[in-house]
Amino acid sequence: MALDMEGMMKELRETYASGKTKSYEWRISQLRALLKIADHHDKEITEALRCDLNKPELESFVYEIASMKSSCQLALKQLKRWMKPEKAKTSLTTFPSSGQIVSEPLGVVLVISAWNFPFLLSLDPVIGAITAGNVVVLKPSEIAPATSALLSKLLGEYMDTSAVKVVEGAVDETTALLEQKWDKIFFTGNGKVGRIVLTAAVKHLTPVALELGGKSPVVVDKNINLKVAARRIIAGKWGCNNGQACVSPDYMITTKDYASQLLDVLRSELETFYGKDPLKSEDLSRIVNSNHFLRLTNLLDDEKVSGKIVHGGQRDKTNLKIAPTILLDVPQDSLIMNEEIFGPLLPILTVNKIEDSIDVINAREKPLAAYLFTNDKRIKEEFIRNVSTGGLLVNDTILHVAEHSLPFGGVGESGMGAYHGKFSFDAFSHKKAVLQRSFAGDVPARYPPYTPGKLRFLKALLNGDVVGLIRALIGCPTRLEKEKKSSIRKSKSPLGNPSGQPKQSFGPHGHCYRIQKLMR
């Protein structure tokens, strides 16, 4: 059935104009509905993820269902506080006044999600859009069709469909959506499609959040607990959708004299986790489709790296599986080092000293994540200070995305904008500046006709010159004005005033009169 895009947009605009999505009660009701979906349909969600990616049940629960529920529960707990206007301190310039920052919804927003975590990456941004009071259209990825169909079904049953809609489809449907005028577009995916989204948004000056990816490095220093480090690297690489994650470690850097020791421990732990024949392991996700399988095998078959495989490399084309694969000392100009891998392949680069890893990382585009394993405080500080990345984690991998108190997003080629926790609420809100004043305390000096006294007063006020402000109020001339008056007096005969000093009085030329004149 053809999608009535015009009719859908008209209904969404009318819903938003009615104001119902702005209420606290509506937002809470929709968040509770999302929680019911996760609680009552976890088996269906797990099965859809198994169908799309052969994702293990544990990963489906931890990384998708539980993560989504955590976002919902936090929003339910904190929403009233997030919605409350923030007080803003005002200055002497606007005295007397009060200021506040009011969060208001943007309006009608579009969320385009990714296939690798198709449940979480669809609903996490939707949670942000709802908490901020928007109406929202979700476009799930067609590359995960089972999850896409399930999301369409469940959101249709549980959500307010006049304000929350799901549009399924592929390129044609996405193109049609991007032709519409939105108040924000939130996209998760690769940089190529991200550029298409950004180009479409320019037509309507639509703000965009792009959650992209990149080559996220993991740097391993010596004198660490190598077994724990290896297990955490494996968990973030192969234990997280078999490397098909935007924050998955993409390549590793260690010193030449430490590489063999690190490699031995990685081999041992990989065998412990996935057995001697990892292609038969039920704890590894499959490659999402044949196109991505071919792309990954082409990276392995590149003549520059085919002889660099030191662990793994087995493939099962029928079941779209590739074993955890480690490559050592691959050339920097190889294919595998010049695109995001997004799969179970892990190249290791070696350097003379661990500090050299910073130059290796900074020679590339800014990554979405960077990981460092070290006990050296100086190395930690240098890494944090000099490596620009969306997020940085020391002595573990990927866990920073689970902290709602930290923003999740990229920088440069790895994306723009951030979300998670209150950052999701902020991502879909406009921060409206509100200044309130009474009719008291009006300052005539701001109005014409402009005089030297008014200028003197406003200069002192806006420069924060308290002494100058007092002098302006009581009519004391500045040094330049004194010199000017003095030169005028010298050019005239001091008849009637031999001393040449101005008379001080409270008459027409005295202090009180000057203040009154200035304030008129």
TrEMBL record:
Domain Aldehyde dehydrogenase: 9-434
Alphabetically ordered keywords of this record: NAD, Oxidoreductase
Record field: compositional bias (Polar residues): 494-504
GO biological process terms, semicolon-separated: response to abscisic acid
Active site, renumbered: 211, 246
Domain of life, source organism: Eukaryota
Catalytic activity from the UniProt record: an aldehyde + NAD(+) + H2O = a carboxylate + NADH + 2 H(+)
Keyword NAD: yes
GO MF annotations in UniProt: aldehyde dehydrogenase (NAD+) activity
Region of interest called Disordered, as start-end residue ranges on this chain: 483-510
Xref: Pfam families: Aldedh
Family of the protein in this entry: Belongs to the aldehyde dehydrogenase family.
Protein name: Aldehyde dehydrogenase
Taxonomic path: Eukaryota, Viridiplantae, Streptophyta, Embryophyta, Tracheophyta
